[in-house]
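Late entry, evening session. Most of the bench is empty. Finally got around to the prediction I had been postponing all week. Sequence below, unchanged from the version circulated by S.P.
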Amino acid sequence: ERKDALGGSRLSGFSNLQDRTGQAGRRLGQTVELMGQYKIGSNIDIFAGYSHWFKGQYFDRLAALPNRGNLPVKGEKDTDYVFTQVTFQF
């Protein structure tokens, strides 16, 4: 729904993102993910990944509101995530 909130973290200082007028729309964006796994030896694996979030009109429109809809500074910019995981088997 147009007036729903995008739930935030339960950590103090963070709040839900919301356009109470309903004008921000519903398009949150699209995500592209790349992941791979490589076996180094008989008991070691490496797993890594990358994700890019192309943020949609919802975030651009929140940024234009007087209180930014609780959106942090530069929160409308696209976001990149990178992770690595190493598994040792005994």
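Two things to note before I forget:
The radius of gyration is 18 Å.
Helices lie at 57-63.
Will write this up properly tomorrow.
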